[in-house]
From TrEMBL:
<dbReference type="InterPro" id="IPR023753">
    <property type="entry name" value="FAD/NAD-binding_dom"/>
</dbReference>
<dbReference type="Pfam" id="PF07992">
    <property type="entry name" value="Pyr_redox_2"/>
</dbReference>
<dbReference type="GO" id="GO:0004791">
    <property type="term" value="F:thioredoxin-disulfide reductase (NADPH) activity"/>
</dbReference>
<keyword id="KW-0285">Flavoprotein</keyword>
<dbReference type="GO" id="GO:0005737">
    <property type="term" value="C:cytoplasm"/>
</dbReference>
<keyword id="KW-0274">FAD</keyword>
<protein>
    <recommendedName>
        <fullName>Thioredoxin reductase</fullName>
        <ecNumber>1.8.1.9</ecNumber>
    </recommendedName>
</protein>
<comment type="similarity">
    <text>Belongs to the class-II pyridine nucleotide-disulfide oxidoreductase family.</text>
</comment>
<dbReference type="InterPro" id="IPR008255">
    <property type="entry name" value="Pyr_nucl-diS_OxRdtase_2_AS"/>
</dbReference>
<keyword id="KW-0560">Oxidoreductase</keyword>
<comment type="subunit">
    <text>Homodimer.</text>
</comment>
<dbReference type="GO" id="GO:0019430">
    <property type="term" value="P:removal of superoxide radicals"/>
</dbReference>
<dbReference type="InterPro" id="IPR005982">
    <property type="entry name" value="Thioredox_Rdtase"/>
</dbReference>
<dbReference type="InterPro" id="IPR050097">
    <property type="entry name" value="Ferredoxin-NADP_redctase_2"/>
</dbReference>
<dbReference type="InterPro" id="IPR036188">
    <property type="entry name" value="FAD/NAD-bd_sf"/>
</dbReference>
<keyword id="KW-1015">Disulfide bond</keyword>
<keyword id="KW-0676">Redox-active center</keyword>
Amino acid sequence: MENIIILGTGCAGLTAAIYAARANLNPLVLEGTQPGGQLTTTSEVENFPGWPEGIDGFELMDKLRKQAMRFGTRTEYARIDSVHFGGDVKKLVAEDGKTFEAKSVIIATGASPRLLGIPGEKELFGGKGVTTCATCDGAFYRDMEVIVVGGGDSACEEALFLTHFCSKIHLLHRRDELRASSIMADRVKAHEKIEVHWNTVPLEVLAGDDGLMRAARIKDVNTGEESELESKGFFIAIGHIPNTAPFANELETDHNGYFIPEGGSQVKTRIPGVYVAGDCADHVFRQAITAAGMGCQAAIDAERWLAEQE
């Protein structure tokens, strides 16, 4: 039986592993289908402390992984299908039937951005024009025209943030009224840099000869008319899907599927010895540095809890 099992290898999971390993807990990290998490799809990370010139997302995660391994972290590939946290021994069952047992567990499985599923979206994702994070990538589109897709608070926040960098923001919304809060919607409609395209959906992201985005093919849902909208950036802001489904029968989640921490803590759950960290429990900030901070908290809490049990 393991002292501690950590699920996920993004910033939260690997930071937790570093702290747990340095505490001589000999952590086992279970990797899923995307080792390194969402940052591995980001070409440049400029807002992670300690890298004044920025760092490639894949390189950053590779360095975090090596740091965790240096202190004794072990890794194994497994996709967890179900968990049983009822007793002193926490059991995790993988899709292939293998069962893992641990005294404590840190769940740092992250969240997956909702995508549109249109042509060009995946091909131009990550440094070529398509992104899901204005905070991460907005500065790369300084003085350029960009597109934001969505109509909720997230899309409005992205659009307003991008006004600090971009010359113009085209907000595409499939309805004739924003779903965002009134204050947020009013700010968007009043901003001189933002043009809202009502009743409009994107059909395709188009690349130029240089392999980077040059435009989007869009459609008016009322008239059926199609056209091209020139743009260098395509920001998808239609929400995220937290990777929490295998744990829903054991841990409390909100109506969007995010874990709900207990007792005023960011990382503790209702089950002693089980902790959450990163984007699977954070639908507000969703940044690499905040995920790392939660991973640190979870590992320290787990270490203290394990010491109390002894």
